[in-house]
Amino acid sequence: MTHPSWTYPGSRWWKFDFHTHTPASKDTGHWQATVGTADEVTPEAWLLRYMAAEIDCVAVTDHNSGGWIDKLKAAYAQMMAQAEAGNLPPGFREITIFPGVEISASGGVHMLAIFNPQAATGDIDSLLGAVGYTGTKGNGDGETGRSVVEVIEEVLKVNVGAIPIPAHADAVKGLLRVNPGTRKCVLSAAMVKQALEVGGLLAVEWCDPATPYPEAVEKLANPLARVLGSDCHNFRGSKTPGSAFTWVKMAKPTLEGLRLALLDGNGVSLRRSDEEPFNPFQTPAHVIRSIEIDKAQFMGNGNAARLEFSPYFNAIVGGRGTGKSTVVHALRLVTRREGEIQLLPKESEPLERFEAFNTIATRRDDSGALKAETAIRLEWEHEGRQLRLRWSATGQRTSVEEWGDGQWHSSPSQSVNPSRFPVRLFSQGQIAAMAGGGRPALLTIIDEAAGVESFRQAFEEATRTFFVQRARLREIDGKLATLPEVERRLQEADRKLKALAQGDHAAVQQAYARIQHQTRAVEETLAQLRDAAARLRETASGLLLDDWLPQHFGDTETDLLAWRADADALLARARQRLEQEADTLEQGASRLEGDARLAAWRVRTAPAREAHQQLQAQLAAQGVADPQAFARLTQERQQLEVQAKTLRQLQTDRARLEADNKAQQALIVKRRQAMTHQRQDFLSKKLQKNPHVRISVIPFGFDSTAIERSLRDLLDVKDERFVDDILTGENGQARSGLAYDIATADEPDKMAKLESVRHRLIEPSEMLGGHFRNFLKKKADKPEFADHVLTWFPEDDLKIEYQRDGRWYAISEGSQGQRSAALLAFLLAFGEEPIVLDQPEDDLDNHLIYDLIVQQIRENKLRRQLIVVTHNPNVVVNGDADLVHVMDFKGGQCIVAQSGALQEKAVRDEVCRVMEGGREAFSRRWKRLGREV
Questions:
Q1: 327 CB contacts (<8 Å, ≥6 apart)?
Q2: Nearest to 740 by CA among 774, 777, 708
């Protein structure tokens, strides 16, 4: 029996009606009146009404009778048989019948007894006999001869198992009702107290949550679970199926599962329908459905090791060497998140362990955990869509598949990135490492959660624009370098032409030069007119509306399609007018070319052209060495005038581009600062009032060594050269150097100090060492070097503090446990993506495990999926794991020995077997009532 769309393993929520009646109860007036008529309520009809209300579990609790139990079970069995045969009865859905009875104890107090689903009418009758009920079965006014205490005790003795629950305890015939306007018991306070002290009483049916307990027994009553049922006596009025119920969290609907849920109580495994709205089937947007590890060195040989996951809290437990961390490493590989752990210092233990795992072993005694044929498959769910990631050791790559048409097929997008498959993975020791030298890894996580990527892209785009502008400036400068020579040649051409103009033929030459200018002007004008017509045609051809996708607009949307047709027609008319204007312009240009005025001009200038030709012939006849000198010089001067004009325009362009470039540099600073501010805002919001950790973003960092690495990357100096100039230290402490200057600058002065260091890199001064100056001068030979220096920003760093005894201390002063606790408090404070934690309790003391991990797990699993590898039973038990996988090592292989919910005895036994302190953890969880259960 499952929710129609619920296909996840582990615990889930069941809609449970704790108090119902059938026609077996004599006070069901309407039902009694219809007996023997067409409207008679049959067992099938009764069940279908509860099915229609989507009740998953129904306790059948007739007054002093179990007369309908067998009838209902027989009717349900017949309906199930029809469903399994493919003949599904209309309105049928699976439901679990919990046989029960509402007993009237001595004094008229009503007591529910809820039995194991396997119980029958005969078991109810046996209990009625045990409590001394001899009245009419089904009569709510009949009473046993036994007290409430005795009835409770007899219910607890039932061989098949039963749970006593005082019915409508705050209302008529209830055990805990009070006199109006007071908190005094209607019944004897001593008797009520005696009843509440019976071991095994776990819950009461409570109708009005606003009604307080009687003052005399408040402390005894407070630990009891408060459940709700419809108390339906017919299908009319307000008390009908689905009108009042309790959500119960169980692995399966069993009496043992119910008993443990009642022990957990309200807010943990029980939620009443009269509380705030609750959607028990709401799952996170992203869920890891399962992982399969096939043919690894010590896992998945023979059959692939498969672990399925609940969308909530999954615990993986087992002894050392049973494959727990293998699952975490496999998750990291298949989701391509190895880059996060590789940001840790090379000597860090978590990185070393992962690198050792991520090695292909060629022999069984090799250290690697993979083989050449190792494959990892992970099924992922995102808002109802099913995806699968497939990773293979050969090639170290992941492919993406989608589920459709009953099979897996290759996804059109093979991208595997944090935005598409968001998951947080923290291997054993990784959290503590991030508090120290692994802060870049932590910053990456913060950036991903804070949405810094879009700010980073804006910064990088601004930087690219800056580089393009700088390259353009260099290109312009190269061209402008020719301007002085062009101006010299132009002056020389002018002098020669003036000299030629001094002779007798000066007038002819001058007239010809004037005509040449006019001719060029006319030709350029005609060319511009024809070009304008071509541009109009190009514009017209580009005036188009985007097509509407036919799958989104059917034939029925006639009005919308007609509207679109009008829009197309409007644009078509505009396009037509533009084309007509282009035709008009071309025709006009042709007319102008043949215009009489132009013809008259040609006739008018013809004598001057002929005079120039005659002059050239005369000069040639007279033996002039260069008869074309005047024409050549005239043409040369014209060309030089054009070049000079172009270059002078470039000077104007350069001034504007230089101003744009300065503004662009300011924009780069602004966008880089926006990244810092986004990080700061995120941390401020997520850590507000956090009692464990405080994190500040330090712009451009405070760690001289980290800034030194960044600076050496900029300069492409990977060795230890130029120590005296970049960073020098004494006794492990930085003392001087460019990196030290930036690291030690006060925050308001950081930007100014960074600009000072940039200036010294671009224009080396005598303050730097000779070798370093020579190196920088050689670097400056590459013009792009200055560009990269001007856009260099050391990465921000994180100042992490933890709280101890009400005071804040630098994280470096804390123990590994304190560092882990502080970072863990932060990492669990945000995010809705799946999170995987490998032994987060390492180095933490017990109070931190409960106050930090257990509480955070309970809060986190309401919004995100958790997969936690742990050795601590308190994490599993008190964190209320929805699904537990118990790992073991058998036959040379790591295997999943047991999987299931904590309410399953086999799972609890395995947890106790492999986890020291497991039984004590279970005992503490279920000693809520102050006694062992």
A1: 291, 293, 307, 316, 869, 887
A2: 708
In our burial notation (b when 16+ CB lie closer than 10 A, e otherwise), range 555-580 reads: eeeeeeeeeeeeeeeeeeeebeebbe
d(CA 208, CA 215): 17
Q: Which among 802, 718, 730, 794 is positioned nearest to 757, based on CA atoms?
A: 794
In the chain, the amino acid numbered 257 is G
User: pLDDT at residue 20 above 90?
Assistant: yes
Q: Quote the tokens at residue 932.
A: 């062992």
Q: Label the pairing between strands 807-810 and 797-804.
A: antiparallel
- What pLDDT score does 626 carry? 62
Structure tokens at 220: 């005894």
Straight-line distance from the first to the last Cα atom of the chain, in angstroms, rounded to the nearest whole number: 28
Structure-token pair, residue 323:
């494959």
Strands annotated E in 651-708: 693-698
Question: HSE (CB half, 13 Å, CA atoms) of 11?
Answer: 28
pLDDT, one tens digit per residue, over 50-69 is 999 999 999 999 999 999 99
Q: What is the pLDDT of residue 199?
A: 87
- Indicate the burial class of 675 (C-beta count within 10 angstroms; 0-12, 13-18, 19 or more): buried
Q: What are the domain boundaries of the chain?
A: 12-272, 286-423+833-925, 482-627, 668-798
DSSP string, 66-124: -TTHHHHHHHHHHHHHHHHTT-PPTT----EEEEEEEEE-TTS-EEEEEE-TT--HHHH
Rounded-to-integer distance, Cα 505 and Cα 523, Å: 27
pLDDT in tens, 644-657: 888 888 898 889 99
Phi, psi (deg, nearest 5) at residue 701: 90, 170
Q: Is residue 507 within a helix (H) or strand (E), and if so which, with residue range?
A: helix 506-541
**Number of alpha carbons in the 13 Å side-chain half-sphere of residue 83:** 14
Q: Are 918 and 875 in contact (CB under 8 A)?
A: no
Three-class SS of 853-899 = HHHHHHHHCCCCCEEEECCCHHHHHHCCCCEEEEEEEECCEEEEEEE
pLDDT digits (tens, 9 = 90+) for 807-842: 999 988 888 888 888 888 888 888 899 999 998 887
DSSP 299: B
Q: How many helices (H) and strands (E) does the chain have?
A: 31, 26
Confidence band, pLDDT 50/70/90 cuts, at residue 929: very low
Tell how strand 313-318 and strand 305-308 pair up: unpaired
Instruction: Output the six-digit token pair for 930.
Output: 């102050």
Q: Would you identify the CATH topology of the domain 286-423+833-925?
A: Rossmann fold (3.40.50)
pLDDT at residue number 776:
95
- Sign of the Cα pseudo-torsion (104, 106, 112, 113, in order): negative
Those residues with Cβ within 8 angstroms of residue 910's Cβ, 6 or more apart along the chain or in another chain: 884, 886, 897, 898
CATH superfamily name and code, 12-272: Metal-dependent hydrolases (3.20.20.140)
The two tokens of residue 214 are 């009687």
For 512, the enclosing helix (H) or strand (E) is helix 506-541
Percentage of the chain beyond pLDDT 70 is 96
The span from the CA of 621 to the CA of 613, in Å, is 12
For residues 329 and 323, give the distance between their C-alpha atoms in angstroms, rounded to a whole number: 10
Residues 6+ away with beta carbon under 8 Å from 27: 21, 63, 140, 233
Distances (CA, A) of 257 to 99, 880, 902, 919: 15, 14, 9, 18
Nearest to 125 by CA among 145, 157, 98, 100: 100
Strands 375-382 and 286-294: antiparallel
Distance set, CA 627 to CA 489, 499, 500, 686 (Å): 21, 14, 11, 88
